[in-house]
Amino acid sequence: MSTAIAVAAGSESWIWPVAETTMEAPTHPESDLPPVRRSQYVPGASPVVTVAVTQANSARFYVIGQVGKSGEFPLSGPTTVLQALALAGGFKDFAKTDGIVIVRKDQTVVPVNYKRIADGKDVAQNVLLAPGDTIVVP
Q1: What local confidence, expressed as pLDDT, does residue 32 receive?
Q2: I need a surface site. Which of 7, 52, 91, 132 has the fewest CB within 10 A?
Q3: How far is 91 from 33, CA to CA, in rounded Å?
Q4: Could you report the per-residue pLDDT of 12-42, keeping only the tens digit for each?
C-alpha cells in the first residue's frame, strides 16, 4: 500500500510518499490552514497527526528612548532588564540611566535605576520582563 502524507503551511504544500514523516513548517498562528479530507491523501487509513509548537514567537517587549536600537524584540525566554538593554544596543551618551522605567501592559510603572544595579547596590531592580513590557530610557 502506498502512503502519502500532505502538509500545508501558509501558501506552500508538500506531499511525501512515506509512512512516517516529521517536518518543521513555519506558519503564522492566526493563519487558516485549509481543511484536509484524509481520504484525499491516504485512502482507507485513519492517520494520526500530532502538531507541536517548537517555538512561540508572539511574546514581545519594546525598548524606546536613549538606546542604540529602539524597537520591538522577541521575548523568547526569561529576559531581565539588563539583558533587554544589551539587546537594544546599550545607552546613548546622554541617557538618564537612573530614570529608566518599565511600563507594563496593565499600565503599572516599574522604576529601574541602572546605576544602582551596575554598582551592585540594588540588583533586585533587574527584574524579569513580561510580554508586552515597554522599557523607556529617558
Answers
A1: 56
A2: 52
A3: 43
A4: 555 545 555 555 555 555 555 555 554 455 5
Helices (H) and strands (E) in the chain, counts: 3, 7
Residue 118 and residue 125 in contact, taking contact as beta carbons nearer than 8 Å? no
The CATH superfamily label for domain 60-137 reads Outer membrane lipoprotein wza domain like (3.10.560.10)
64 C-beta neighbours (distance < 10 Å), count: 15
Where do we find the cell 509512512?
A: 19
- Model-wide pTM > 0.70: no
* DSSP helix/strand/coil, 101: strand
At 34, the amino acid letter reads P
For residue 137, give the amino acid letter: V
